[in-house]
């Protein structure tokens, strides 16, 4: 019922070599033709559910797939329709499966009668099975295309499906492939790619953070793995969009937010599990910095420049980006270091949780949140007297606290959490604006020698900084008086 697999894209330069490798393994060839169904309003696609009929050589197989709680796993239900010419879509086969029946009823309801073919795929698959340690892994190379009307999109990807055994062995088996052939992880399904093609779109929707439901009876080890998994659910679709070069500035922003959430979780709650690798924090910081300058410039273009224009600045244009040795962000997210980090985090969230006493979760949360709360209140007492780096540290503490509260909010009364965040968020926003002004000031200071008009901008920034700094102090003062909920 649960399909456990990881899919990777293959760089053009490696495709021929991998194809030859599959031939040398006497991989079994299978011809696959599939039709994907949905309503005109895309009820299934909106919930990341796919319903397809696929001709596998001579047999038609009808398959329903839906997300599970992890990126590695998907709910999958197959029905063999036999050797028919053109079988009709048969939803009756799901009446005997309570999970599938409930899922389709919730998502489709009376719209089930409006299901029509949206797009199709034609794939030549080469597949062989490997026994690695105690795992059985099916390795597939898919070559073909997705079609909608007269539009097509090429498929050339490799999948590793765990038939039996541990996810640890699956990932250990995959890692040499990633290193040798420069594979990069792709969390988009063929159904999602086909849905985008059917809509005549090129860029995937941005993935935002979703609420996490924890149980106060969870062990701290289990809670941390759920928190990291929640952050990965946020990160991976956006990282895939960037790696596939089908992204906009919001994908970059959300990727950075997801990395910040991961870093915050590991920094504050990292001692909850002995499975945490201390190197992850530094690796995430490196990846965050590689995405940094691009996002800073996007944020200033979308936020600061319109304000300057409104203020009557004679020159409204960001300075050219300095020549950097850094690699493009798409390459950064396809790099071996990034893929290995993601695989390590995926392995972490799938490791069985350690047996621990299960009564101390909220007590431990309270201790950690109280420490952050007190640090911020201490900063608030003297914020205007702090140096720039200490003010920057305050901003990071506020963000870290907010992310951690969002992770554990389900364990506390919603109204109390909401009231606390109501006083925290203004401080975060004003501190963020102050940071943006500092970034802009550095950018324009380098330009002032060549463009005298920039003096206006630097003067405006200096005045705005004074105002925002005072505002941040007021917001921090208000926050420091708020009641805690833990």
UniProtKB/TrEMBL annotation:
- One Pfam family of this chain: CHAD
The family database entries (InterPro entries) matched by this protein are listed as:
CHAD_dom, CHAD_dom_sf, CYTH-like_dom_sf, CYTH_domain
What CDD domains does UniProt report for this protein, alphabetically?
Answer: CYTH-like_Pase_CHAD (cd07756)
Q: Which residues form the CHAD domain?
A: 217-486
Domain CYTH as annotated: residue spans: 1-201
Q: Which domain of life is it from?
A: Bacteria
What protein does this entry describe? Answer: CYTH and CHAD domain-containing protein
Species of origin reads Acinetobacter terrae
């Amino acid at each position: 019922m649960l399909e456990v697999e990881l899919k990777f894209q293959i760089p053009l330069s490696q495709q021929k070599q991998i194809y030859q490798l599959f031939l040398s393994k006497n991989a079994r060839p299978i011809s696959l033709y599939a039709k994907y169904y949905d309503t005109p309003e895309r009820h299934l696609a909106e919930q990341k559910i796919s319903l397809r009929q696929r001709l596998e050589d001579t047999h038609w197989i009808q398959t329903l797939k839906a997300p599970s709680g992890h990126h590695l796993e998907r709910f999958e239900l197959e029905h063999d329709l036999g050797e028919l010419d053109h079988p009709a879509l048969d939803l009756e086969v799901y009446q005997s499966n309570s999970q599938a029946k409930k899922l389709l009823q919730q998502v489709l309801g009376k719209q089930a009668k409006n299901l029509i073919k949206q797009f199709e795929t034609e794939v030549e698959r080469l597949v062989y099975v490997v026994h690695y340690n105690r795992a059985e892994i099916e390795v597939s190379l898919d070559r073909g295309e997705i079609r909608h009307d007269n539009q097509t999109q090429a498929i050339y990807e490799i999948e590793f499906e765990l038939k039996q055994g541990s996810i640890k062995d699956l990932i250990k088996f995959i890692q040499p492939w990633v290193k040798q052939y420069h594979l990069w992880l792709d969390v988009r399904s063929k159904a999602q790619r086909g849905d985008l093609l059917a809509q005549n779109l090129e860029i995937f929707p941005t993935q935002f953070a979703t609420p996490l439901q924890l149980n106060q009876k969870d062990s701290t080890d289990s809670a941390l793995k759920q928190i990291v998994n929640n952050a990965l659910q946020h990160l991976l679709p956006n990282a895939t969009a960037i790696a596939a070069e089908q992204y906009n500035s919001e994908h970059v922003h959300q990727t950075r937010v997801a990395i910040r959430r991961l870093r915050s979780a590991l920094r504050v709650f990292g001692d909850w599990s002995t499975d945490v690798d201390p190197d992850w924090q530094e690796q995430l910081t490196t990846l965050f910095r590689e995405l940094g300058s691009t996002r800073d410039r996007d944020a200033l273009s979308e936020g600061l420049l319109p304000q300057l224009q409104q203020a009557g600045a004679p020159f409204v244009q960001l300075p050219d980006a300095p020549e950097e040795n850094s690699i493009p962000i798409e390459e950064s997210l396809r790099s071996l270091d990034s893929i290995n980090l993601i695989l390590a985090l995926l392995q972490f969230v799938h490791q069985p949780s350690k047996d621990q006493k299960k009564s101390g979760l909220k007590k431990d949360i309270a201790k950690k949140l109280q420490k952050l709360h007190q640090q911020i209140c201490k900063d608030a007492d003297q914020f205007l007297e702090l140096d720039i780096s200490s003010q920057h540290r305050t901003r990071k503490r506020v963000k870290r606290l907010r992310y951690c509260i969002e992770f554990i909010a389900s364990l506390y009364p919603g109204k109390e959490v909401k009231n606390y965040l109501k006083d925290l968020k203004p401080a975060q926003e004003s501190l963020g604006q102050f940071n943006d002004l500092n970034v802009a000031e550095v950018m324009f200071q380098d330009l002032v020698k060549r463009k005298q008009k920039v003096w206006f901008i630097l003067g405006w920034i200096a005045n705005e900084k004074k105002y925002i700094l005072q505002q941040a102090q007021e917001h921090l003062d208000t926050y420091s008086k708020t009641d805690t909920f833990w």
